Amino acid sequence: MLKMVVCIKQVPMVSELPWDPATGTLQRDLAEGMINPACRSALEAALRIRETEGGEITAITMGPPMAEEVLREAIALGADRGVLLTDRKMAGSDTSVTSCALARAIERTCAGFDLVLCGFSTSDSETAQVGPQLAEELTIPGVAYVNSIEVAGRTVRMQRISDDFLETLEMDLPGLITVTADADSQRHVPLGGLQRAFAEADIATLDAEALGLDPERIGVKGSATRILNVYSPTAAKKNLVLTGAPKRIVEQLFARFDDKIGGAIGKDLKMDRKP
Amino acid sequence: MDFNPCMKHKVVRKAVRMFAEAELGPIAHDIDRDARFPWEVVEKMRPLQFFGLQAPRAYGGAEMDSISYAIAIEEVSRVSAAMGLCLTVHNSVGVYPIVRFGTEEQKRRFLPAMTRGERIGAFCLTEANAGSDAGGVETTAVRDGSDFVLNGTKIFVTNGGCCGAALIFAITDPQNPQRSAGVFVVEKDTPGFTVGEIEDLCGMRANPVSSLFLEECRVPETNLLGRPGDGIRIGLTALDTGRIGVAAQALGIAQAAFEDTVRYSKERQQFRKPISSFQTIQNYLADMTTEIDASRLLLYRACAMKDSGRPFGAEAAMAKLYCSATATRVTNLAVQVHGGYGYSKEYDVERYFRDAKVTEIYEGTSEIQRMVIARAVLAQRT
Fold first, then answer.
1. pLDDT tens per residue across span B96-121
2. Whose CB among A54, A67, A212, B22 lies 3.0–4.6 Å from A10's, allowing a Cys bridge?
């Protein structure tokens, strides 16, 4: 029986969220949470593997107590059980500390796991680091940015788009895969499943102590990463009006933008221009 | 007293909203324009148990609590009130009376196909001479051996054109119509059961509201819910639950109109300012959100009372009365704030405006709700 672990993260539902300028972190309490879209793809991939190969799925998340919500949702979607890592002392952990905590939790609650699935990146911090670091922490092979998975016995065959190429890779289990957000069209939450996920779900809650983590090496204190600055990028648009007869307009257009137009059509227009 | 939604209710709202926006959002305008019932969405709703929202799990239902139910109806109606209408009628007055009053045999026979959404339910009380006056029903069900033979015409049947099982109100003793009303489950394929023309209505156009004809329509006596004479009691109980659904639907329409209005008022510029900067518009927005909030609280209280097993008829009537009035007022203001565009079919508020009105009419008119509320008040107070 295939033992799968899906790591999911609760992210804010709206993209424009207030953030705390003092710490450079998002004010998560002001937002509605949702399962990170790529994590939802990872769960979808696990559900499809279970449909053909059988097995069990544990959804695991690290976050504030309200992150329990995404575990319930994952259970409604079909996960068998949930594990919540929550501890105020772990707040502000960087990706390295987070990966370490997740690894210890997986070892404790899902011993003998075969496959760990993660979203390739999260919509709120976009580092794409937790998956690969988690593979290191668990000392298992990992493949990132995967968009299709096939399991055959103890081997997984995966495809991912790498630049303009489609790569096919194989990995022996146990292993870890990070899944892209568009990997699978995702199912909707069944309403009966949702009621059951709140009435009778199996969710274990673990804190730093239960995970055996050194208090000095977790949270902001234990994190090597410092966020120096967070800001909203601003994109300025400038309108340019070209005037004159059509021929003159076209000439101006090409004079100004021949590199961009050429880039789009894959041709060096400067070479073509009449002397 | 905690006024914050619990985690479950938040997740139910989010799940239904995501479904409705993804599957109904892109077609809501077109199905209204074309008066088309979206079977393709029904297909997607079936496995998610939208057709067994509160039915017990044993019969294929989702076994939702009433607040979750109201949230689900509200969120579907926020995107397509006509589809919200289909669901509330099916669940509240189609499935629920069978769950509540059916025998074990009837539940096993009728419910699974209904909760799977294979047979959409309809509730048929209204006739040419009966509506608010449930005692005026003229459709007859005459006993013939172990069968009943039904004859009559039902009008304004919500889900009429898409129903697979209709709950028919009929009198079993024409000499004693008041005390002999019964509710019969009639499946669509029963000989003598025909669907009339689809009504050309002001709003809720994607729901195939129609007449239903019963001509020598023979059903076994095991299709009668309860006993002859239980009809009025079953009907009134179903309508109490139905009112929660219609209140939720009205609330969803109001919410949609409000959201569109806030967005539009911030975008629309007049006198070189967004119109939301004008106090008149701000007053409208304040009134809209206040009424919506009050409506929601009244509705959830009725739901909570229902789930706690207490009588909730008067509270459901208050919620239905107030939510439907809110829907018509809020959609009216929404059109006003949108100005000429609000009167155009290009904008959704025009549809909300048309859809809202009927929530003051069906499942008991506002006048009937006031009667129900006043009766409760007069019975309680000395």
1. 999 999 999 999 999 999 999 999 99
2. A67
Question: Would you place residue A28 in the very low, low, confident or very high pLDDT band (cuts 50, 70, 90)?
Answer: low
DSSP for B113-182, written as a single string: HHHTTSSEEEEE--BTTBSS-GGG---EEEEETTEEEEEEEEEEETTTTTEEEEEEEEES-TTSGGG-EE
Q: Determine the 3-state secondary structure of B69 from DSSP.
A: helix
Closest residue by Cα to residue A124 from A45, A43, A46, A34: A34
Segment B204-239, tens digit of pLDDT:
999 999 999 999 999 999 999 998 899 989 988 888
What superfamily would CATH give domain A3-222? HUPs (3.40.50.620)
Q: Which residues between 36 and 55 in chain B have a beta carbon less than 8 angstroms from any beta carbon of chain A?
A: 44, 47-50, 52-53
CATH fold of B121-228: Butyryl-CoA Dehydrogenase, subunit A; domain 2 (2.40.110)
Q: Do B62 and A194 touch (CB under 8 A)?
A: yes
Tokens 């929601």 locate to B296
Which two three-digit tokens encode residue B278?
A: 């004008």
Q: Which amino acid makes up residue A211?
A: L
Domain covering B7-120 in this structure, CATH number: 1.10.540.10
User: Which CATH architecture does the domain made up of B232-380 adopt?
Assistant: Up-down Bundle (1.20)
Please indicate whether residue B350 is annotated as part of the active site: no
Contact A188 B44 (CB under 8 A): yes
Q: What is the pLDDT, as a whole number, of residue A184? A: 55
Q: Do A195 and B10 touch (CB under 8 A)?
A: no
- Asked whether this complex has an ipTM greater than 0.90, the answer is no
Domain positions in chain A = 3-222, 237-275
